[in-house]
Every structure is written in C-alpha cells, then in structure tokens.
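Data availability excerpt. The first of two example chains:
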Amino acid sequence: MSFLRIQNLYKTFGDVAAVNRINIDIAEGEFFTMLGSSGCGKTTTLRMVGGLEKPDSGEIFLGDQCLVAPEKNLFIKPEKRNMGMVFQSYALWPHMTVFENVAYPLKLRGIKGAEASKKVEDVLALVGLAGLGERPAPALSGGQQQRVALARALVFSPKVLLLDEPLSNLDAQLREEMRRELKSLQQRVNITVIFVTHDQIEALSLSDRIAIMKFGVLEQVGTPEDVYFRPATPFVRDFLGKTFLLPGKISTSTEQEVNVEVQGVNAASLKLPRNKVIGSANGSLAVGQGVTVAIRPEKVNLTVGRQDGRPNMVEATLQTVQFLGDRYEYTVTLGTDTRVLVSPESHDLKSGERVYLELKPEGMTLWPSEK
C-alpha cells in the first residue's frame, strides 16, 4: 500500500525539463533509491518531496495528506512535512556542539528541557555517538559528522528520511562501513527512506527498490535484482555494471526458445528461453532478424578446452590476464571486439591462446537491434 505517492511530477529550469512527469509509489518502511548520473533529476525530485523546491505541476502525498499541488495552490512548508533530511555536505553548524546541532530541530518545534535532552541522548546512542554531545562539531571525523547529521534528521521521529548522497564525501573504506551502518539503522528504526545516489554499489546493496532516472524520466523502477538482471531499457542495461553485447541474427524461433547465430564469431550459436526477449523484439522474431544478446560478465564461465555438445559456448582469444587479489581479470577478443571478464579461478594461460566462454542462459537477455 502506498505511503508516499508522487503523481505526474513536473519541474523545469528554463527550457530544461529536470523532472518530466514521473509517478512513484513508495511503501511505508521501504528503502527507496533514486539512481542516475548528474543532472538526471534525482536530487530535484528529492528536494520537491522535502519542500525545498516547488514543482511546476503534479502532486505529492504522504499518506492521505497532499503536500503539494500547484494546480490547487497547495504547498506545505518543509518544517510541516514531518521529514528529516541529510545533505551531501552534512550542513552542521560549526559554532555548535554535537548536542546543540542535534537538538536544533527540537528547538524549532518547541521541545526543550529534559524532554529534549532525553531525545538527543537516545538518538546519539542510536547512531553510535553516546558521550560525544559536548564535542564541537568541527572536531569530529567525517564519519562522525555524518552520524551527527543522521541524528539531527532522526531526533524528532520523522515519518520519512531523505538522504541526498550522504556518503559521497567519505573515503572508500569508511563509505563501505557507513553503508552497512545506514542499512542497519534504517531497519532498527523502521523508517521510510528516500536515498539519492549516483553510486551503483550503494543503490544495489541498500535498496528495497531502485528508480533509475535519465534526463528527468524514469527508465525503470524495480528491485536491485530486477533492474540488474532484467533491465527494461537499453539505458538501464548499459548503465548498471558491465555488459557484453553480442550482435546476431535469429536462426530459429519457437514459443519456448530462440536460437541466435552470433555475428563475427565462427560457428557460435546461442540458445535463450523466450522469456529473455526484451521489448519490441518479443512481438515478431522472424528468422534472419537482427538482434543483440546482452550478458553480465559474471554470468560467463571461461574454460580452456572445447566442450562439445554444451550449448552457448563461444570461442575467443585471450589477450591479457591480471591478478587483482581476490580474482583474475581476463581480456579476450571475440571476432573483432574485446571484452573483459572476471573469474575467481586461475587458468594457466598465455596471450594468444584460444579459450571458450560459456554464456549462462539465466544471465542473458535478447534485444532488438538498435538502428
């Protein structure tokens, strides 16, 4: 059941449609992520939800309450929306202590004295900062400052937590640690989170669902597994992770499966279940029709000897091998194209040797050729 609902939301800056009539339903307690490149409209959407930007048209509901509807001249102020927000810069006041920073939202709401102190102490303990209330905010590390920003956003028990790339200023190791802590915190508090990021690992590891945006438009909304293994558009397919793209032509097609002859690779034929066909290609798969087979590198097995009788084997030539500690990175050539795949196994191979790639059907999708 929808807890936060965005309907036909539209926002322009000059002649540019930053958010182009998007519709999103978010469930209570859900960790919902908006993912995309810079300028795709994700932060603008978040700011409209929080009341920091006004849409040109559309509506936003929190439960049964309409927060904004320009056509009805309705706009609920940010402080009245019962939402906490953490900014990319944390936006802590340097002249205040940790306690004073966290207590500030309570002060704005008229909560003072022992009640405010109890709430601040409880939320500081929740984020792992118990006992640091009197420390000046600038004296904290980056990870501690991020926890203060989270505590300040949570101290008044908001219904929704809005996070605008809160991990982007941390170094790689601390970002990974804080990612785990953030997910654990969200589950303990059981709060609805809308999270904005351009980092795919953050989106895939934290989210219950992900909305992928491009130029103000929603390309796909789904679980991390959906958007990664079952992309709805070529943009989502190519934006997330890495993808092998193999051009080919339909050799046979039935109601159950499709056979594709791979172009540029000698005697390579691939067999896919019919449900792996994406988009307009699913309507009519004529023999000879041009298509593209996409597969994630982790769904490709590298073997040395030819496996006669095994389906979905493609011949390739090894170019380079790199040892990366926990895995090996193999660069191979298929026809005239070069591909990179990763394997945990070490193969005693030299440059120029012939290898075989087994493409797993569960990792493949079939697309109409783009003209």
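And the second chain:
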Amino acid sequence: MSDLKIRNLYKRYGSVEILKDVNLEIGSGEFVVFVGPSGCGKSTLLRCISGLETISDGTLEIDGRVVNDVAPSKRGIAMVFQSYALYPHMNVFDNMAYSLKLQHLSKEEIRAKVMGAADKLQLTKYLDRLPKALSGGQRQRVAIGRAIVRDPKVFLFDEPLSNLDAALRVQMRMEIARLKESLPNTTMIYVTHDQVEAMTMADRIVVLRDGVVQQVGTPMELYERPQSLFVAGFIGSPKMNFLSGPYASKFNAHTVGVRSEHLDVAPQNGVWSGKVIYSENLGSDSYIYVDVGSDEPVIVRQPGKATYASGDNLSFSPRGEMFHRFDANGRPMTH
C-alpha cells in the first residue's frame, strides 16, 4: 500500500506563505497530477512530500505513518527531476545501479533489478552507453529507471518532460502510462504546466493557485464542471471563452463561459456576432477568432477546414446547455 494523506499543510519562508492549508488524500496506485500557473506552489508541494523541503505546519502521512521528520531516503519515495541529473562518467547500467550499490546489495540482486527496469523502459540495448551518447528522451528514461530500481512506494515527477521536444513528449507520455500499468500498486504524483499531460495522464488533477488548492477531480470533472472561473479558464486548450457585462446579461450571469467546440455558427440571429479577425486551419479542425467587442476575441472551433476570411461577419450561439454561468465572485451558478 502507498496511500498518502496531507492535512492542513502550510509552507512558509519567513512571513511569506507559499502553501496554505493544503488538504489532500491520494490513494494507493493513483496517478495524480499537480497543475497551476508558475509560482502557484506545485513544485514546493512535491518537495514537501519528498522531504527536500520542511513542512511549516500540518502533517504528511504515508501508509498511515506521519513522515514530517523522516529523512527523504527513509520515506519510500523516488523523485524524477526535470534535469536528468545523470552521472556523466557512468554508463547507463552504473547510473541505474548506483543507489543499489550504496545499499550494499549483491551483484546478482543489482543486476536483476537493473535488467528488470531496463526491460520495462526499452533501455536494455543502451546499458553500456554513456549519457552523452543518448537522446533527451533516452536520458529521461534512464532517470526514471534509476528511480524504479529502488522499488519506491511513491514516484514523484517534477516536470520531467519539459526539456523534450513535442514529438518526444508524446512518446514519453506513452512510456510513463505503460510504466504506470506495469506498477499498479505504486502511487505517482506528477507536476506539470502542460495541459495535455495533465488531461491525458491523470486519474485525478489537483489545481493550485497562489498556494491554495482550487479543485481536485478527474480530468473530465474539471473540464465539464469547473468550480471556479479560474479552473474553467485554466483547464482546457484553447482556454474557455469568457464574456461578461452585456454579453452575459441575457444569461442572467456576471460572466458566461463556453468552450470553442460548444459554439455553433448560426446563419443569422446567433446569440453573439462579430467580425472574423483570424482563422487557424489545423487540418482536422479550424479555430476562428471573432471580435464581438469584448475584451478578448471569441474562439470558435469548427471541424475540418474553415472558409472564413478576415473581415467576414460571423454569428454563433452556444450549443444547447453547453455553457457555464459564473457570479461576480467567479463561482458557478446553476442553469
């Protein structure tokens, strides 16, 4: 078992509060992703869990044991960083075996653990190579392999893919998803600023803002039922369209939010209308940016290739009940 409970956790540097009254329960075997804007405290929370940062107030339990004062090496945790932190003078095998040698395991045990991890991560044929002879994705797999061999209860990933290009990130997301399937009882906590990583990998997402947990839920719960204007605008790409003032008054709301895929072009008499200022054709989809007179253009998504040009008039409406109403405090209102 590797469940984790965080109760009333605070982290302060002097008088500055970085994390404020964080309460979370993460079940054994869950894959939980922390997301939020830069400086929201997500990496600090991860470091508090690992023991690399001390907790100012509150408790952290792993498997029912309070570990606030337990050394990082004794928590049953392995951390994978954004920078691979590999030893450049050691080959892949020795990088992965290093922590096991410090535990004075036998050569047979070390070899079995390293070969097992290398097989999971398709690294077997690279075991004799130095890190400089590997691609970024291969180096990150070695860093993950180095964590696997320790057989941790909890994996912590701190933006592990942010140094990789787009194609490698997709590949590594699949690698980590496969790894999770092969380690069903291991809890994984993952920090990212990447929407797609959070939405595609997480069992549950924790959204943080200014050190405060805003909402916890499955990716689709957050996408379909955001509990605040902030979460609605943060989850999803492109972000939700927001219209306020007279544009929202017909919905009896302070702000109305609607996602680009939930807007339908109307031949005439749509709820909103304006001039096309830009059109993006992505092949499978098109995004049309429309100036309706609000603070930001409204993005309308259409399947296939759009035929609208800059300057065209466009009228559109939300589909059915596929919109969100928010009050003046940014809280959702019922339809």
